[in-house]
């Protein structure tokens, strides 16, 4: 039996289905398994062959076999890739397999519907400005395919134009709902994606942070909101972005204490809180908004003692900010920091014991040096100052490629190698402070930031990862000590780039990073302008929370009340409905004129202004003869073009044409129409 596939689904629809298939699936390639990608490629190549007429539609047994094989494979690997990734792959495979077996228009409708689901799924994970524009273009094509099912046209772009009009008409309503509709929390918890984590880890060895210096990835951005309207933050030497606190040390690795890990696990059900009463009485505070990039981890970033009103952020007792859910997409949260706050004025006995603990028989030389400091400097502050000066007075070096160390890591570093990165110096400082009788701990995070004057915000990259020491002092609480400032002061005062060569660090493995534009002033300015657009998108669209919504409504309505919001919505709905009704022709009293006649009449009117009127009822061919007779001497090209346009017009209107001939004549008419319209307008 002959397959009547092409007679049921138009080639126009088939063409745009090919385009949409690639556009819908390409953003999800990171979540697709190799098996899924292989099946999608087979389906696409086969579909291209069907479109070109080289192969027939595949037998159902083949499609069924691929579906069963894909389902079995996903079931076997679901524990490795995560439940949500398995479901995403299942949806991708369903889309591809339905795509290859479609035979009727109802199959096209099913593919379009699944395409919308995949677009929405991609938008949940990729919300950047460029990604959103790309997905908007995919929505246009997907909608155009749906329109072609009901209104097929020979012109490939006709349905796309109608799709664009529909989406443009829906934008005012979407913007209205975006501004007015309440911000709701997630209605369900998404299963773990098993995605690779990025950035800092809750364990740290000597070489961990130095690995991040080879990454040019953006970690987060910060916009300061000062009372005077300025957007500059504290100086670079005060930008210590606190992320993790580690108190357990086994001689090789720093880890979070199990008690704080247990508190993090319980945070979703019982939120820990820090007392804000003392801090709120202080005069000096810093307000800022943080936009964290996806890290697939839960730790957040803040300066000093930080508080956030975001209901998805909790404040842990070790003075960190912590997210209730993994940061799997860009997350925006407002923070208030109190730089003069005393962190933990009174130290509990168990916390003190924990931060004085050292591994047994570990780094005996360093312990002896610490005891020497304790004897010479009984005052804790003087002792710590002496330890800091020790790093500056001795021949120590700051390097991204430190030599290896043995079992006694800190002894080897302090007395043998004398070269290391921030983790080396911070570890040595914590160890010496503990050995001298002072509670101390390791803090990791980021130091510094690149200021963008175009939009007034700071970008913090992974290569700015840093480690420093905190020591508890009576009456002063936890105090920050950073030995790096003694070895490489420019690293702290002016940033990472003031100390290290970018080409041998964070740009070494990033040949296409936009950070390479830094060395060219005009390209760097362009880079910052483009980054500013993405920042504004993150602040005003992704970060459009209840506070920003109230600000916008206050500017529009003054005093925001429920009645005013309801009236604004009713008035807006009426305006939107009237505009759509007008463009739909609901208010037009005259019968809508054929676009072809309308364009022809426009040219006739312009020729009438040149003294060649068309009498009522005159045939197009007779009028064309009059135009040629009047213009052939002075404007032969114009006369010839109008005569050719008239021939195309009459062919379309009065001659029986095949679809291909009709399309050729319409293209000829439109080409000559644009040409004559401009020439007649200029003359």
How would you portray this structure in words?
Helices cover 52% and strands 12% of the residues. It is built from 25 helices and 18 strands. It has a 6-stranded antiparallel beta sheet, covered by helices on one side. It has a 5-stranded antiparallel beta sheet with strand order 7-3-14-17-18. It has a 3-stranded antiparallel beta sheet with strand order 1-5-4, with no helix packed on it. Strand 4 and strand 5 form a beta hairpin. The longest helix is centred in the C-terminal third of the chain and has 24 residues, at 659-682.
How large, in whole angstroms, is the Cα Rg? Answer: 34 Å
Biggest sheet: strands, sense, closure? 6 strands, antiparallel
Helix content: 40-55%
Rounded mean pLDDT score = 85
- Low-pLDDT windows of residues: 1-7
The total count of strands amounts to 18
Shape: elongated
Transmembrane segments: 12-29, 35-53, 60-77, 83-100, 107-124, 130-150, 162-181, 565-584
Keywords: Membrane, Transmembrane, Transmembrane helix
Domain Transglutaminase-like: 414-485
Protein name: DUF3488 and transglutaminase-like domain-containing protein
